[in-house]
Amino acid sequence: MIKLKLVQWVSVFLLVLLISGCTGIYENGKELAADTKSHIQEITVEELNNKIENSEDFFLIDIRQSKEFEKSNIPYSTSIPRGLLEFKIGDETFWEEEQWYVPEKDAEIIIYCKKGHRGILAAKVLSELGYSNVKNLKGGMRAWDPEFDSGSGTKQEESGCGG
After folding, report:
1. N or C: which end of the chain has fewer CB within 10 A?
2. More confident residue, 30 or 105
3. Hey, what CATH topology would domain 29-148 get?
């Protein structure tokens, strides 16, 4: 009887261990972004160009680092580096300095980064903060401008926050 109980407890423990070991562990940010991609909406460069040409009302947010934004950016975009996004998106003082208004929870927000990986994660975070109309620019700055080069190509710049 004691052996049977011990076998049952060990079996339950192993089952719980097996199930819990298969959830939410990623090797790197690119793997996390690839898994997250199915949970967010994306917009193509052509669709973004149409919105700009038609003077549609939306927020275009560049989440790359400030130095990347200074080197090149998409016209009409606002720089909010990825590490500050959750804190700046609803900050009235920040938006006043940008001469904009704070985005409403249903406002269209388009996020972009260098290649799209950071943008995927940023779009997911904004949706978790209650923003319901967030899109990532598919392919990021590289898709917008295929000739784009973010700078010197140093290892530090290339690896920063997942592209």
Report:
1. N
2. 105
3. Oxidized Rhodanese; domain 1 (3.40.250)
